[in-house]
Structure formats: C-alpha cells, structure tokens
Amino acid sequence: MIILRDILINIILLFGLVFIISLTNSKIKLKNRLFDFIFGIVIGLITIFIMINAWQMATGVFFDTRTVMISVTALFFSPITSFIATLVAIAYRIYIGGPGVYAGVLSLITALGVGWVWKNYIQNKLKIHKYLQYYLFGILVHIFMLISQLAIPYPQNFEVIKNIGLIVLIFYPIATMILCIAIVNHEKSVTANILIEKSEKKYRSLIDNSKLGIIQFNSEGVIEIANQAFASILDAKKSDLINLDMLKLPNKQLVLRVKESLSGQISLYEGYYESSLTGKVFPTRVQFSPIFQEDKVIGGIGVVEDLTEQFKNQQQIRELTQLDNLTKLYNRASFDTFILNPDNMKELPIAIATFDINTFQIINTSFGYDVGNQVLVEIANQIKNITDDLDDVIPYRIGGDEFALIFTSANLDQANKITEKVKEQINQIDLFDFNVNMSYGIDYISDKGKSISETYNQALINMNSNKIYDGSSISIKTIDVIMATLFEKSKREKMHSERVSVIAREIAKIFELGTAFTNRVELAGRLHDIVKINIAEEILDKPARLNESERKKINKHPESGFRILSSVPEYLDIANIVLSHHERFDGHGYPKGVKGHNIPLESRIIAVADAFDAMTEQRTYRIPLTIEEAIEELKSNKASQFDPEVVDKFIIYMINNDINF
Hints:
The structure is a single chain. The protein is an alpha+beta fold. It has four domains: 2-190, Arp2/3 complex 21 kDa subunit ARPC3 (Orthogonal Bundle), CATH 1.10.1760; 211-311, Beta-Lactamase, CATH 3.30.450; 348-466, Reverse transcriptase/Diguanylate cyclase domain (Alpha-Beta Plaits, 2-Layer Sandwich); 490-657, Orthogonal Bundle (Hypothetical protein af1432). Helices cover 60% and strands 11% of the residues. It is built from 26 helices and eleven strands. The strands form three sheets. A five-stranded antiparallel β-sheet has the order 4-3-7-6-5. Strand 1 and strand 2 form a beta hairpin. Helix 4 (66-76) packs parallel to helix 6 and helix 5 runs antiparallel to helix 6. It is elongated and about 175 Å long. Mean pLDDT is 82; it is low at 471-475.
C-alpha cells in the first residue's frame, strides 16, 4: 500500500509539467532555442523533484516516474529540451549514487531514446486511436525501463524486477497515456485560443474597416462594440456609443426591431432616424441579427447603412423623370400621370389652367434659342414665386411654350384670381428687348360628370380662343420690336431696308396694280432682311468680303425670315414675298430654285431694288457703282437673274424721274 501511495504521489507530480506548460499559454513547438534550453532545465528540475519523492526498495535503489516524464518530454518537446532535461536528471541520479545508479541512468537514456524514435519513426505510421497509441508507447518505454534494471548487481536485479515489474507495466503506461492526453488537450486549447484570437482580429478588422456601420450588443440591448463608420454616420464619438442602451432610445420602431433580434429574429429598420446623441437626422437601413450560443441568444449585431446618398440619387432620378430639366417645373409626363389617374378624382373639385406664350416662335427664330430658354426659365420662376406657398396648386411645363396649373380641392374664384395674377406677372417681365405675353384658358370640374382629361381639353379650347384675340396684335408688336432692334444693331441695315422699301414701292406703282399691292411691296421691302437680327454685327458690318461660312449664314435669311413672318397671320403674304426675294428668274436662285413667273411679282420687284441698292451702296472693300453702271448691270442680267419686265420698268422710272440715290 505504501508503494502504491508513493506511485500515486509521483504520478501527481508528473502534472507539474502540464502546469508549467500552461503558464506559457502558447504552443510547445513555437519556441526559440533559448526557451528550449531554459524549459529543458525546468523539466529537469521537475524530474529531480519527482526523484526526491521516490520510494526506496533497497539502499541505493530508487523507483519513481522519471521515465514517464523524460519519455513524454522526448515525444512532445524539442530535442534540445529533451536532452537538457535528461542531462539534468542523470546528473542528479549520479549525485545520489548507490548500486542502482547505473540502472537509473540507463532508464533515463532509454526513455529519451524510445521517445525520440517513437516521435520520428513510429507515431505517424500507426493507424490507431491516439489514446491507445500513447498507452502502447508507455508500455514500450517501461519494458526498456525494466530491462535497464539488469544493470543492478546480481542477484538483486532480478529481485527488483520481480517486485516492481507488474506495478510498472500496469500503472506507468497509464500514467504515460494520461500525461500525453493532458499535453495534447493543452495543445488543442492553445490552438483553439490562437484561432479564436485570429478570428477576433479578423472580425475586429472587418468591423473597423467596413464602410457600413457595425455594432455588437449584448442580451440587454447595450452596445459593446461599435466601429468608426457607425460613429461617423451619427457624427458621434465611438466612446459615447459604447454602453449605450438601445432599448431606452426614443425611436420606438427601432427599439422594437432590437427586441425582435433579441428574441431570435432577423429584423430590419428602414426610414429616417434622429440621433438622440447628436440630433442628426438621416435616412438609414439597419439590419439586426441575433447571436446564438448553444441555442440561446446572447446578443446581436446591427449593420447600419446611411442612405443619404441613395435617397439623393433617387431624388435626382425622380427629378429626371418628373421634372422639366430646363424650368424645374413638373413635366408633361407628370401632368399626364395626374390627369389620367382616376384616383385623383378624390381631389375634387379640380381646376386646370393652361398657358401659351404668344409669339414664342418669333422670339426663338429672331433672337435665338438661348434667349428663348431664358424666357421659359423666367416665366417658370414667376409661376413658382406665386405658387410655391400654395399647397393645392401644382405648376407644370407641358410643352415647348405651354404651361399649366392644376388646382386640387379648388375654389373656382380663387383659381381664376391666381391664374390672372400669373398672366399679369408674366406680362410685366422687362428683362428682354421685347414684351413677353401669355394667353390662358381655365376649366373646372366639381363632380364626376366629366373626367379630368375632358377638363384639360376644355381649358385648351378656352386658351386657344383667348389666343386669337391676344396673339395677333402682340405678334405685330413683336415684329416691330425685332425690326427696331435690327436697326439699332446695324445703321447700315436700317438705311438699306428703308432704301429698298422706297425703290420697291416706286417700281410697284408703275405696275398700277392698286394701293394694296404697292403697300404690300413696300412693307415686304422693309421687312425682307428681318432675320438678320440673329446674325452677328461683325458679319453684318464686316468691312471686307464675307467668307464661305459667313455667306452660308446670310443665305439662310429668306427661309428664317419666312418662319418669323408666317407666325403672324396678317403677315403671311409678306412672308411668302420675303421667302422668294433671292430667287432668280432663270431658276438658279435660292432657297427653292423657283423660276420665272412662278416667283411672286412682289419678290421679283424686291430682288431688283435690293440688288440696285447693294451695287450703289458704299462698302469699305469696294467702290460703289454709279447709277448708270448699276443700271447697265441690271440690263446685262435681264432674264437670267432679274425679271426683264421689272428691270425695264425700273429703268424707265429712273430715267423719267432723274432720281439720284
């Protein structure tokens, strides 16, 4: 019983090795040589302590678990550690001395050797369970340990083997196996901790480097981890977010989502959120997911997205699809969506007012499309100034020069007043060289007796009726403004237009076709170059001959002049005259190549008057022709460029009246 007690004490002392290993909190194989040397000395000292607590069978013959310690050390530790530990143990055993010294030293050497051989040549080849492998290893070590006892002097050696053989082969392999298992479990624990540490570092790196806000909270809803992205989203400090109790936040919807995650559900919060820490309001999406441990929720993770940019992009997309790009009013698609949606009948009564710019085509053609766009923007600004504070009035741009107002839950008198105010405000615009004028029409629906579309169509009819009365006089005034602007722009053009008008009038009188004919020719002569308002002054007054590009711009003016004048019903005849005043009698003129008497007589008269004035006009790059020279030029181009009859009548008039231009 005393022997068994001593053996158990020795076996317990073996686990000092496990204790020392655990103090390092690292893997056995991750050491450097200095550590291996030092650790070898430590294991050697543990082995000495085991030997101090050995049981003594006879004087100088001691038994303990040193072979277990050294063999396991050789199996798991580096050769340096194993050799140093064995050397320390041998030194102590020699120091003790006695008849068993050779057997003791030999036992240590065989334990070291068996451990080293097993480690390098046997353990990887055995396809058996680890526990059984360690047990067999323990048996082999202690068979050699028993053989080493033969070094004790005879006959005492056989007596020793007889007394301890059975005990050694029963208990020592088991002790070896247990110690091996303890070391392996330590290794697994350290490996698991290393993996956990690496995983935590990766997890922390993932959280810290994520562009999304990430938080981790415990089962009480208290934030334990928050990354910088989350702090930046809230404009807060990370330190202020740690230990924040989300279950006490004022946003009840968000609190509900947190509670759902803590109950084991994945929940989503989406919408505007106001931070209780900073007061920042922003659109966000937060997904809360539970964290489980052994089927129990121990907390959760929140992934936070700042949707500010996304909402901004969506707003821009809405603007592109719903707003007019130029005026920023709602566009035609938005207007059609409203009037075609039967659900909007719930907004009754509804009034619709439509507006149309008078003479807008003349403005675009005469002053250019950039000026036309400026007009549209200014009109839109005036409309917005009046309607922005009115919740029940929606402004639209529904066409090139058309606008509309939709009044919901409308009062007809109020709608009429607002519509009239819009017209008056626009008519007072004084930012341009011409007057801006709009006609409008309005209609009203108070019950389901007609549709919103029918109401819109009636508003258009009313607008067009008003436009008949408004448009004509405005158009004529606009033509006058255009000519005044042209004459102010170029004095030479003014003098040229006036001379052509007088010459053409005098030629027309000779034809004796009546006062209306003469007046028509005179007016056409005055307006024949109206579109030159759109040509740069440096081209109009260029002191040299025009280049090819400049000539092309000039040659387009008959067609452009036609477009301007034809927009005014009273000037339709004049427009046709202006269109043809550069046609040639032989059909080689422009813009259409009309020939002979297919060219209006008025145009043929203006062609002669225009050419005569151009030939006799002073230019810096050429000397003007005399009247006689100009007449000769007209004669030489009879029947080719000019109508012979018109040239003859012009010459007769010039000779009979002796006019000096």
